[in-house]
Amino acid sequence: MPQPALGALSDGIYGAELDRRISAATERITAWLSGDSRVAQPKLAAILGSGLGGVVELLDDEPRLHLSYGDIPNVPQGAVAGHAGELVAGTAGGTPILVLSGRAHPYEGYSQREATILLRAVLALGIETLIVTNASGGLDPEFDPGDVMLISDHINLSGENPLLGPNLDRFGERFPPMTDAYDAALRAMAREAAGRTGVALREGIYIMLSGPSYETRAEMRMLRGLGADAVGMSTVHEVIVARHAGVRVIGFSLVTNKATDDVETGATHAEVIEMGKVGAQRLVTLLGDLLPRLA
Ligand code: HPA
């Protein structure tokens, strides 16, 4: 049933309508997973950002199931090159994991509610731990393109919140706390994995802007002054719905370019993709060690 527009929520996707869309997506995913008992009850999920498709290769060869986002009702597909746009179900060292390979971004025009339908549909399966990944610009002058940053906290400067509108009580409470959004125990495990694999790991605060334009020099100075170490256009809305649902979160950001006010030229999308590959290789190494330990 269409609902009357609720103030600023002009997309009509909120409350009962949002809940219906999420449920229909969950039903489709459940039916798909029910074909293989080895992956039917995943407790671990991962969202792969730009250029991180290689993480899928860390999964055991068998079983591996694929479901295109286009085959899941109500799920926006995302249009950026380098994104596969599919769910992959498999195991990592025997542990079931559900991988969201590619994401729809709010800058494509989706509300943050719509952009998180797929994630909430997946969380409703009983996911307990979520790994989020993204690409970012380095605000910390020490950061170099290719660095991997463990996210210690975030700042939501996107101008929106995925929980705007009536609360979906089946996921969580109206006013969820966001203190300690990035699980301390999981972060300690990530540092240990970095030590074992020899991957250099930065750690810092991620700030989300809506994009899609990259930052001006004045904005880079401002964001640094606000206390952020890396800037990007995703992830924060996903972490908010995950924490709302009580799911533990660990996040990694691939620094693809410098975002300091003395940078010679601004970031280009091609540069972001290219340097993302360097960081992706490092992150794949680290996750190869970490994934089997996470369940
Ligand atoms: N700014 C915002 N988002 C980004 C950047 C950046 O410099 N690099 C990769 N994603």
What does this structure look like?
By secondary structure, this protein is an alpha/beta fold. A five-stranded mixed barrel has the order 5-8-7-6-9. The chain has one domain: Rossmann fold (3-Layer(aba) Sandwich), CATH 3.40.50. The mean pLDDT is 92. It is globular, with a radius of gyration of 18 Å. It starts with 14 loop residues before the first helix and ends in a 5-residue tail after the last helix. The longest helix has 22 residues. Strand 3 and strand 4 form a beta hairpin. Helix 1 crosses helix 3 and helix 4 crosses helix 7. The structure holds hypoxanthine.
Domain count: the total is: 1
**Given this structure, which CATH class is correct?**
Alpha Beta
- As a percent range, the share of strand residues is 15-25%
| CA-atom Rg in angstroms | 18 Å
Q: Give helix and strand order, one letter per element, not per position.
A: HEEEEHHEEHEHEHEH
Find the CATH topology: Rossmann fold
The shape is: globular
Bound molecules: hypoxanthine
* Structural class estimated from helices and strands: alpha/beta
Q: What's the pLDDT, averaged over the residues?
A: 92
- Number-wise, the strands total 9
Q: Could you name the CATH homologous superfamily?
A: Nucleoside phosphorylase domain
List keywords for this structure.
295 residues; alpha/beta; Rossmann fold; five-stranded mixed barrel; 7 helices; 22% strand; binds hypoxanthine
